[in-house]
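Quick one before lunch.
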Amino acid sequence: MKRILVWGAGAIGGTVAAHLSRARKSPTLVDVNAAHLDAINRDGLRISSPDGEFTERLTALAPEQVSGVFDVIFLAVKATHTEIALERAREFLTPDGCVVSLQNGLCEIGIAELVGRERTVGAFINFGADYVEPGHLLFANRGVVIIGEIDGLMRPRTQRIVELLRPFEPDAATTDNIWGYLWGKTAYSSLLKAEALSDQTMVDFIGDPDLREVHVKLVRELLAVARAEGVEPLGFNGFDPRAFERDDEAAYANLADMAEFYRPSAKTHSSAWRDIAIFGQKTDAPAQLTPVFAIAEKHGLQVPISRKLVQLIENLEAGRAKQGSSLVAELAKEAMAS
Ligand SMILES: NC(=O)C1=CN([C@@H]2O[C@H](COP(=O)(O)OP(=O)(O)OC[C@H]3O[C@@H](n4cnc5c(N)ncnc54)[C@H](OP(=O)(O)O)[C@@H]3O)[C@@H](O)[C@H]2O)C=CC1
Ligand SMILES: CC(C)(CO)C(=O)C(=O)O
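Model of the ketopantoate complex:
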């Protein structure tokens, strides 16, 4: 695991790469954002956090500048860009190397098709980070970091990848149920995508008593798909899927715990919210949820609230709607009809 490529130098990839570089792991960083590359190569990569900040000198390359081979590729592009990024990145992977997806969604399914199941290692991340400006990222809060093989087995490389990530997250750990985490995050992060419809912070949106029924129906809808797929969804950082499955009161109490997790964070809004409100760009919500819809269909399950969520986000992305309570009300209407 000596030669490390981090593909995607944004909030997640850049933050991880800067910490690995500081620990003398010498990662090679790749991105397509020319202004960001220029700033990193000129001034270093600045990482701010509530605990202080540091600037790490490291080389950042455009995809066409990469050469050589690498033992591990940490993929940290948005789900939308997984395929295009990997088609290029896989050229640089050793035959017995692996791709580790530092992404939200069920990206490991597509990655396995592109590089082979045996070269795909699952990862679940829940720390918060923001791209602030070229060359400058915010590491907003720590969160769970878990590595697991997609077939549930433990291999020597599983632990080696965890060790590699420890300079970034000292509590990084392995699991034999990575799909449990990925589906857990899929259900949980539907609330973060729904927050993108609103003009609220994550704390206010997730903790909004007027929206709790909507939140619970949305999360339950996705947990049911995980169960149909034979996956035991797992909790993390305040989220307990079983509370949602138990009864309404338990689910409402858990929503409060989930909101509290974000209160001390310097990241006030979800990445999807920021894509719309700050950058005026597309989110990766459709790319994350579309594979889930296909799986739901396979099991004969309806997911009307999640489908409505994607439709509303696409309206936002296309400039046909504005973030705010009336958009949230449209989602609520669908949820209450379900
Ligand atoms: N930010 C967060 O707090 C969290 C994010 N995640 C997940 O992590 C993943 C990465 O998100 P995040 O870091 O926030 O996103 P960012 O947009 O901050 O970073 C992604 C970077 O990848 C670049 N990129 C796009 N296409 C390519 C390509 N083909 N090759 C190389 N680089 C490319 C982007 O450039 P450009 O902008 O020009 O497209 C951007 O700089 C997502 O799946 C997200 O859902 C998970 C947990 C928390
Ligand atoms: C909010 C966060 C960081 C999860 O904790 C996230 O995954 C996102 O913004 O997409």
